[in-house]
Amino acid sequence: MMKIALISTGEEILTGDIVDTNSAWLAELLSDAGFKLSWHVTVGDAMEELVDAFELASQRSDVCIVNGGLGPTTDDLSAEAAAQWKHEGLKELSVWIAKLEDFYASRNRVMPESNRKQAHIPESGEMVDNPVGTACGFKVSHNQCDLYFTPGVPFEFKTMVKDQILPALVAEQHESMPQLKRWLTFGLSESLLADWLDPIELPQGAVLGYRSSMPTIEIKLRVPASCADSDVKALEKAISNRLDPFVFSTGKQRMAQRVQALMLERGVTLSTAESCTGGMVADWLISEAGSSAYFQRGYVTYSNQAKQDDLGVPKEIITEHGAVSIPVVEAMAEGARDKAQTDFALATSGIAGPQGGSDDKPVGTVAFALATPDGVFSQMLVLPNRGRTLVRKVSTAVALDMLRRYLTNQPIFTQYSGSKILYQGQ
Amino acid sequence: MMKIALISTGEEILTGDIVDTNSAWLAELLSDAGFKLSWHVTVGDAMEELVDAFELASQRSDVCIVNGGLGPTTDDLSAEAAAQWKHEGLKELSVWIAKLEDFYASRNRVMPESNRKQAHIPESGEMVDNPVGTACGFKVSHNQCDLYFTPGVPFEFKTMVKDQILPALVAEQHESMPQLKRWLTFGLSESLLADWLDPIELPQGAVLGYRSSMPTIEIKLRVPASCADSDVKALEKAISNRLDPFVFSTGKQRMAQRVQALMLERGVTLSTAESCTGGMVADWLISEAGSSAYFQRGYVTYSNQAKQDDLGVPKEIITEHGAVSIPVVEAMAEGARDKAQTDFALATSGIAGPQGGSDDKPVGTVAFALATPDGVFSQMLVLPNRGRTLVRKVSTAVALDMLRRYLTNQPIFTQYSGSKILYQGQ
């Protein structure tokens, strides 16, 4: 298997002034394409550190991607360091100078002299086009390793890797990229997902991976291109069947995107009434472009007075059952649906912490209601108390999940990993 | 200066299945304490890769922190690899076995045999306590380098670094930690901040750093411990004076935390009326524990009907001026303040994109209003259009910034970097 190394350059990464997001992105992209990063080093902007890194990486890999150090300033030493490492000079690419001049001319500016440097690459180097920036990428070979030099700016880096470097690696490997299938899930822990999927037999070379990004977990299946289509389909079906009601997307659709697609398909409308989630449900929904086509309005009724004034929740039921209770959250959902004249309404009321818990209703206790044309569905759960933010995020996901399950004719209630059911019913 | 290396271990980082957050955290922590990471490598879980990494790091640094590979499974090879590298065996720490047995006994469980491994460290190693987990940390020395072995679990790693490893480094350096001052700012670009602060003369050894985490920028000043207190105070004052109205915190307080502190100081209350920010203003505020003491309720009036029904915005002014206009956003703020009977109300209405822009009101055009006991302050800005999410985030920050400026008796309106002012007034 091809060994691929990554060298990240930049003092700002080592001082913590910027967070290197390119490396995690590259690691995932390579995996999805059936490759694997085998070694990754981060070094500063000094000449000797760069030369040292090139030497180490070239001894340990077949391909090395060098990221950063192609800018116009004096800290940007990658091209010069590569030339020094190879004991050669730099050449100026006239085609790149022309490109830079055009770039500045189109903005009615003259190319600053400092940018000329960005057209200089080692004598033995081959240009690798950067269609979205002023830094010229290039490739040099040494110690039987191909080194690709790329700019640090994430958008430029990603464009070059996707459009040019990855295709070159795929061509070199003489093997087609694996087939990649995804399932985005909510509600099951990673260990439970693994328990459920372990009994499914995988064809040789197929790999199942998990990637958690709270509160959702992505499952990725990579199958070698050589696998028969019918086998892949059967495998995909087996996994889908196992996970079904917990999967909200088989692509990269966010949960709110999925809800939006379902709402638009049916041509129905939604309002929200939030207490502990405090606007997060509305925020997730409205963060998707086009949400105005179904999302009408939301009430963040944080105080009890607001629950009464805006949603018509009777004062007596708040007094009798408490703000975090099934009767209150049901009245909130019905109040919002009525007031907003929408087909559906979602409501939450809970104890996000860190204060406010009791023996009966500890921090993490959250009541949810979904008002529909067929009546109100409600549940009260004790979610794992991993801090205020996570309690609120998981609550938001549970609320959206109830609506998603309703719209896809799945059972609305389930046992989410790590949470305790206090009540579920219609 | 002491050279510090970091070795991150774990296949899951190289495959992209988990994102390594420990390294950026460590880089920042070391910088804040006057150290600097000089080299960082990430390798997989194979014996030869680990031994190779130890050798490379020890040749390039005085201290090396090794992160990961101390778990109970067969992939966890760090201790064994360290012993192999040093040509020695492993020893079992009876004190750690006793700790593990206690740990499991207190949970009414018997220690699984696999955990015994977590008490095994190289013969020449010294134990480094891990007070919050089952993996024993340790230190070994080789090639004139001290290597500290730490668990990959972020909470355990951070606790050990802060409580034990960092103090050991400080002691070894025979120099006090630098003084660290912070300013969290909103509204100025990094280049403008640099232009403003560049003329301020820094004492020898002092360093000014910028860390952007949209939409705010943190400025950090590190001054050598040897600097006279009066000089540091003068410098701090000069920087504060230069930045003043743009600074919302001189610690780590988030913007919503700062607003909360100011609201509680005055004993006043707040409501919100959001259109384009769609719940994000309420969400930021409610994400802070204790927000119920001043935040009463929020209206997410996404549709025009909701603006009329819930906030009493007259239909005619929507028709005449459009939903994104000063008259509408002022009516929203006044409506919320009236309805909720709060001292203050914040309102937003804008075009977050990607669709919906026009020549007059391009994507990024957002109207803001702050209703106060002294009347309504409002502005309409064209924010930089860097995508729907960023337009909404920056809008949320502008809204909170208006309230913060009012509560601290600063001018409510300013020129935010990159945005165009269409209207500002009371």
Structural summary, described in words:
Two copies of one chain form a homodimer. Chain A contains 14 helices and 18 strands. Chain A is an alpha/beta fold and 426 residues long. The first copy, chain A, folds into three domains: 4-173, 3-Layer(aba) Sandwich (Molybdenum Cofactor Biosythetic Enzyme, Chain A), CATH 3.40.980.10; 179-249, 2-Layer Sandwich (Alpha-Beta Plaits); 262-425, Maf protein (Alpha-Beta Complex). At the A-B interface, helix 2, strand 2, helix 3, strand 10 and helix 10 of A face helix 2, strand 2, helix 3, strand 10 and helix 10 of B. Strand 2 (37-43) of chain A pairs antiparallel with strand 2 of chain B, so a sheet runs across the interface.
Quick tags:
homodimer, 426 residues, alpha/beta, Molybdenum Cofactor Biosythetic Enzyme, Chain A, Alpha-Beta Plaits, Maf protein, 3 domains, 14 helices, 18 strands, 38% helix, elongated
Structure, briefly:
Chain A is an alpha/beta fold and 426 residues long.
Helical/strand content category of chain A = alpha/beta
Strand content of chain A: 15-25%
Q: Sheet bearing the most strands of chain A, described? A: 6 strands, mixed
CATH fold-level assignment of the largest domain in chain A: Molybdenum Cofactor Biosythetic Enzyme, Chain A
Work out the number of β strands of chain A: 18
CATH top level class name of the largest domain in chain A:
Alpha Beta
**For this entry, what is the oligomeric state of its chains?**
homodimer
- What gross morphology of chain A would you assign? elongated
Low-confidence stretches of chain A: none
State Rg of chain A.
27 Å
Largest interface: A-B, 73 and 73 residues
